[in-house]
Amino acid sequence: MEFLSRTLRRLRLSMLMAAAVPLSVQLHAETFTSEASQAELVELYTSQGCSSCPPAEAWLSRWKDNPELWKKVVPVAWHVTYWNYLGWPDDFSQSRYDKRQQYYKQLGYSRSVYTPEFIVNGREWRGWFQREALPVSEKSVGILTATTDNGRFKVDFVPQDTDADDYRLYVAVMGQDIVSDVKRGENAGKQLKHDFVVLDYKMFAPLKHSPINGKYLWQGDLTTMKNAADNKAIAFWVTRGTDPTPVQATGGVLDVN
């Protein structure tokens, strides 16, 4: 009887502990690792109010079934605000995404600001309009590894260029399999589908400016970032200084169920 009583007490305690864990919290660790060769950070600047954007978003969505996803290609879709004046406010648009796109132009990395616009590894890419293949980087830049667990992340980067410094980490939480019924604007009456939609992103400085055992290290809290969708993905990429050009990137789908 005493053994049965102890067993029941342990069972009740386990049930209470399980009930105390929010469903939105990741219950196990996940690790995302790049290869040594440079992955392509493919940025799409888009809007629900732009009639020429749905085909570009459909092209980006096709990467979901590509085996090179997250290893060779890390897609992110930034929804901009400058189409909202037509009467349909894009729920995912943020003015700081506009500023990111404008910054590429200020640096001379893009000739103009428009939608749909692709930026691949920090440079404007117009090949999509001619149905060209995505450019492939042959550079070996180092391995980026990210681990997420219970709403937190740890990242390390081992660069090939040992003389470089001032690395910065960017983390973007993205929505997947999103369907929007657009009522006004150029896409009025259409049902649009979105993937890799940036819901929120942040920049993090490394724990130390110099590497520790050859690694640059970061850690942070994901729960402070906006989580507006049930199906989520995450992207990590590193840059140097104030230059937005990605050095390396990785990512994957978060299991938050």
UniProtKB/TrEMBL annotation:
Q: Which InterPro entries match?
A: DUF1223, Thioredoxin-like_sf
Q: Is Nuclease given among the entry's keywords?
A: no
Q: Does the keyword DNA repair apply?
A: no
Leader sequence range is 1-29
Q: Spell out the PANTHER family in the cross-references.
A: LIPOPROTEIN LIPID ATTACHMENT SITE-LIKE PROTEIN, PUTATIVE (DUF1223)-RELATED, PTHR36057
Organism field: BD1-7 clade bacterium
Q: Which domain of life is it from?
A: Bacteria
What is the name attached to this protein's record? DUF1223 domain-containing protein
Q: Name one Pfam family in it.
A: DUF1223
Q: Which UniProt keywords apply?
A: Signal
